[in-house]
């Protein structure tokens, strides 16, 4: 089977998360969820969909697909995904082993798994060795930045009412964490993700002050995210479990963070580190070393669905990360909408989802 066409779509979809829109760099407000989807067509008449990390670098990821990856991949045989992806990783290595070029390859890889599943009539979780027992994955509500304790209390109440039984904050103050703990009660697992904010001294001090709030983990407290030595040191100073991994660009990075004993929870992301092929290896590596693995998946497209298939096939159990917001349009329809705090694992071949191309056309940028 040969690849006959590749098209990238930069999507920007308005959302509502039950609070004022979060601020983002340069004083602006974040008003849309942005991502890059990729459609791959083959000479067998099968089409696959993938997703690439975009966020602030959507235009660059989009460009990488259209101008670099697509010309290299069109016409290639895709029956052996591992062999094709290995060759493409080698060809673009001078463009970096992390970043938009790898994000672009990640989406292509997911689309190829979708196609492979459709070709053999099996869902991806079965191809990964799942016995099919996990049909529903509990999700934690990953909250966008809310800034004030009032907003935190309000949205924590909203997510409990919708059936979520675990919550992650993206806040940076003790007041916000205290407000969440108060609103959620003592029994709901609460995580805190600071998105690489503090230096080591500040992280040590904040971890000490956060101890009373019984965090299930503290995620990416440090900048830069690849200072594994500092992260490992922080880990020796606190009993709060330390999580990181969404910024790892490849399997060797995962090995490095594990070798450094820098994390209790590792979070490789299929749309950032090479798709299902590489992320599945990372999850296997973490599990073999007894480290809790939690795929990073705050997405609404094929990236989220890829994570669900992997979680359902993992030996360890873990929650799915779900970015808590209602989109104005849903590219995958019901497939990416949790019910009572859980997401269904699609049972159809490949990703097992229907992609609504009308929604993609409506929210496509440019
Ligand atoms: Mg995070």
Using brief descriptors, characterize the structure shown.
single chain; 366 residues; alpha/beta; Enolase-like, domain 1; TIM Barrel; nine-stranded mixed sheet; four-stranded antiparallel sheet; 15 strands; binds magnesium ion
Can you tell me about this structure?
- The chain has two domains: 3-121, Enolase-like, domain 1 (2-Layer Sandwich); 126-355, Alpha-Beta Barrel (TIM Barrel), CATH 3.20.20.120.
- The chain is 38% helix and 19% strand.
- It has twelve helices and 15 strands.
- It has helices at 58-73, 81-91, 100-120, 124-127, 149-161, 174-184, 200-210, 228-237, 251-259, 275-288, 302-313, 357-363; strands spanning 3-16, 23-24, 28-29, 32-42, 47-52, 136-142, 167-169, 190-193, 215-219, 242-244, 265-266, 292-293, 320-323, 326-327, 342-344.
- The strands form three sheets. Strands 6, 7, 8, 9, 10, 11, 12, 13 and 15 form a nine-stranded mixed sheet that branches.
- β4 and β5 form a beta hairpin.
- The longest helix is centred in the N-terminal third of the chain and has 21 residues, at 100-120.
- The radius of gyration is 20 Å and the shape is globular.
- The protein starts with a strand and ends with a helix.
- The model has no long low-confidence stretch (mean pLDDT 97).
- It binds magnesium ion.
